Amino acid sequence: MTATAQRPATGEKAAPAPTPARRREARTVAVLVGGVTLSLLALLVSVTVGTAGIGIGDVVRAVKVSIVGGTISADFASTYSVITQLRLPRVLLAFTAGAALSVSGVLMQGLLRNPLVSPFTLGVSPAAAFGAALVITLAGSSQLPAWATIAGAMVMALAVSALVLGIATARRMAVATLLLLGIAMTQIFEALTSALQFTANENTLQAIIRWTFGSVNDAVWSDVHIVGGVALIALPLTLFFAKDLNAIAFAGDDAARSFGVNVGPIRIGLISLAVALAAVVVSFCGIIGFVGLVGPHIARLAIGGDHRHLLPFAALSGGLLLLVADAVGRTVIAPAVVPVGIVVAFIGGPVFVYLILTRRNTLK
After folding, report:
1. pLDDT digit string (tens) for 65-103?
2. Predicted model pTM
3. Are 317 and 295 in contact (CB under 8 A)?
4. Is 96 exposed, middle or buried (0-12, 13-18, 19+ CB in 10 A)?
5. All domains of the chain, ordered by start, with CATH?
6. Which of 150, 144, 139, 149 lies closest to 200, judged by CA?
């Protein structure tokens, strides 16, 4: 073949090489698609984890019958009941709770410009657990509606977050001092919750202990609907303010104001949303620490710090983290089930120490 034959015909132009921006965009899309695919596969596999001997084919069949309808044979009725009434609510609650906590962590870390901040380290989660425990204690043997526990957790969490951030703003505290204040609040509310346990009767004590362990053992569909609904409403709201969050997180308040960002109301609104996400999760699942800290860092390593992409991927990484932790808790000493909060603490504790040791500058 001659050199003339290798050249493009007259009038034709060679395809332009992809720019770095387009390559980054393509990589971001690939990571997001991969995260969604992995999440769906993890949800499917997690339903099969347990002692009932359920396979992936059984899960697919049960989901198909639930969605499009169909007859359930007598030999499949028991398996169908286990999948739809026990396993599916459990794994979906674990995933949506992890997603909500991780998004809450991203918001707090971005708005406060510190990667060590989370609902747990600021005392929000322990305060929400105390609010839920207080409502349970005051109700005694009365049957509580779901909204009462949620309201108790949310009111206490919002009050503590307002107190902590208000003191920090008034005193112009450094982030390190803010973290120490959050640790103090955590100790106070854990002590108050312990005091409620000390004075509670047997039934109330059992209900309160559930919050301190952090568990999805008693998941039902109503829990999934509420936690999942809150997460689905919150994520689009956070994405709407993603550019403003980028300006605050990367440039600081003064620079963000010069870009036209109304920093004060946006910070108050998004922190309130972050606290609400954490409070709702705690009201149903108890104290689950470190997901709001570790989930955002996993997402940043995979997709970068742009909150337009970080927020949805953090929801996936947090959901996967809690989903895997629950699967480990169900298998590590089967047939006994280790509460997911304990498993996550074993994972998150060493990661938190690593972050402290490798990011000293954030504490100055």
Report:
1. 888 877 777 777 888 888 888 899 999 999 999 999 999
2. 0.85
3. yes
4. buried
5. 88-363 (1.10.3470.10)
6. 139
